[in-house]
From TrEMBL:
Residues 25-54 are annotated as: Disordered. PANTHER family: F5_8 TYPE C DOMAIN-CONTAINING PROTEIN, FTP DOMAIN-CONTAINING PROTEIN. Pfam families: F5_F8_type_C. SUPFAM superfamilies: Galactose-binding domain-like, Pectin lyase-like. Residues 28-48 have a biased composition (Polar residues). Residues 1-22 form the signal peptide. This is Discoidin domain-containing protein. PROSITE patterns: FA58C_3.
Amino acid sequence: MGVALVATAALVTLPAPITATAADTPLSQGRTATSSSAENAGTPSQNAVDGDTATRWSSAASDDQWLQVDLGATASVTRVVLDWEAAYGKDYKIQLSQDGSTWTDAKTVTGGDGGTDTLDVSGQGRYVRLQGVHRATPWGYSLWEFQVFGTTGGTAPGGSCDTANAAQGRPATASSVENAGTPATAAFDGDTGTRWSSQASDPQWVRVDLGAVQDLCKVDLNWEAAYAKDFRIEASADGQSWQTLKSVTGATGGKASYDVSGSGRYVRVHGTARATGYGYSLWEVAVHTGTTGAPPVEGGGDLGPNVIVVDPSTPNLQQKFDQVFAQQESNQFGGGRYQFLLKPGTYNGINAQLGFYTSVSGLGLNPDDTQINGDITVDAGWFNGNATQNFWRSAENLAITPSNGTDRWAVAQAAPFRRIHVKGGLNLAPNGYGWASGGYIADSKIDGTVGPYSQQQWYTRDSSVGGWTNGVWNMTFTGVEGAPAGNFETGPYTTLDTTPISREKPFLYLDGNEYKVRVPAKRTNARGVSWPANAGGTSLPLSQFYVVKPGATAATINAALDQGLNLLFTPGVYHIDQTIEVDRANTVVLGLGLATIIPDGGVDAMHVADVDGVRLAGFLIDAGPVNSDTLLRIGTPGGNADHAANPTTMQDVFIRVGGAGPGKATDSVVVESDDVIIDHTWIWRADHGEGVGWETNRADYGLRVNGDDVLATGLFVEHFNKYDVYWSGERGRTIFFQNEKAYDAPNEAAITHDGIVGYAAYKVADSVNVHDAVALGSYCNFTADPGIVQHHGFQVPVKPGVRMRNLQVISLGGMGQYRHVVNDTGAGTSGTDTVPSKVVQFP
């Protein structure tokens, strides 16, 4: 149970016109705000807590609207200041909550007249809400600023603080006493008629011995007329080394209580400045103990050892890129992780070659803020010109003017190319046009022609290209200006004018000298890039993130989440012994440099609650050697909340089972929530590397979707022992799917079920009535038994609302075959010529 709320309801006619002092920073400033509605995209809830009196939140034009702020941790709230715009609330309430669900009225206002309302309140809560009752105008409710004041600290949610005084009657000493009638023990005897007083000089102290080290949660002070203006409350385990629990300046005497967090056997009140010409004098000091939990996790800080931040004047910059590339070029399953962050400016003569687990990103708000006159290069020299294993790397948020007019980005899966402006052409094939198997582009502008050449498949979303030439099997475009016309019957192209729903990935940038994370807004029926307008998004300061660095524990990560912090995983490999629990709406979990999470002991790696707007982006989950039930679960089983207005997104989140060593998981990703957007993932049961074998890296299912109205754009799922994708939610949609069946299926008997040989790559459950999927490909390469004939690539119920378009199955060099494309429809594959068998529409 959390700390009990203290409700002080009051009925007032007009709030007193008191304004907050400039030096008093609100607890609410920059925190996460949500609301019942927003008038338009230009007046979001976040505007009310941004500290800018020129921006505002406004609601829809109806009563019973609310705005709430998450303070990130339990706070003792003392004051709320409302700076109304012309559309103000006449009657409203200020409410407090520990969990964002159960609310207690802290103040009720009737007959408000707008302007600035300053309200004294008393209570504790993590969430503070303005609940509108009646508007004063025909418009909605509108606030320039919503400010919450008070103090944080004390007992953590789930802890308890004893009301008993642990110091009463305990031994006490002091730096001095005024006389024999005012000894140190008098401050701890439980008698408010006796006191300790010191000599009339600074500094002075009084301390108590609790007898043993205890958790400390609160200290009560009852000052006599001779009080301290400035003092510290301190704790010590040995009476020698002291830790400051609370530093107080400008105190006014009387009775005061201070929430603290720490432990010690000795507690000391250490006065540093007296308020009078006398000494320090205390009637009583009470010390309360209890379970306070761990000390608060601090937000912000440096970005750790494997983030390389550079600017155009950085000496030996090319050498830095070359050194990391030399280490990472062929380090496919190693532990190195690196992120280059390029400050805005112009970089001349740079060729940043990217190996495994290496990311390069610009730190501007827009790609054109970071200009590279040179290249960002991925090639396949390390693998004899074969690019099919160029996984796990990325480039984001910068502009490239290629040195020879065309940049080379020869990648396979899990290598996103986002928010890039290529001022020239883009070649997606390796030097020599060897094999290639990728890939993904989003929110990018390529002025010249994109040449995929040997690329077997590619998905491009919400971008602009000067042209597109060639392609092998599955080239898919949604919302791409300049995309080629669809020709799937005779060629590789599937083209949709717009993307039904999209939201770009969060990204780190510099606002002056301050790091922030930009969280872009949802787009509907998008076409073309989202920048430079970046309309409708929000920016979160780094102070609202726990910057996770190598060595961090799951307990600390979860404590940070419980405090209301977001997570920024810096490059590294993180072993966790408990599930990471993301329970708060709008939490951002962002990884740099392919940060990798490995669950130990069979725990699940991450659970996301059935809440609005969580953003998961830019990290890898690697299965541990003890079987996990589920590596990533989004939502809770049976959850059915509507998240259409603010869906959870999973972007550039990759899953690996085996390859770096033995790994097992029954399910890799399970989606229980409605309205989730899966935007580019590679969910992979390894077919090479270490710890690979039919049972060694056993993983039955890649993706299971139980939630309704889930959209997948850019879905890569491969090699699972049973179904790669199993979809049982209603109204699901997939745009682009790439799959290979498990290479190591030992024989037909091992994969026969329900009288069918082989598990479909993509199965829609028989119970589903509405489903829509387009541009899906499944390939077989049964190296353990090339005689396997899989019955079909796709299996769906035959119903009017289930629509499958542009499907293909392919036998890679005759290593096994497909009998049909979908259900019992579509010609089988045959021979060794690697020719697709297609179905344009089913049914």
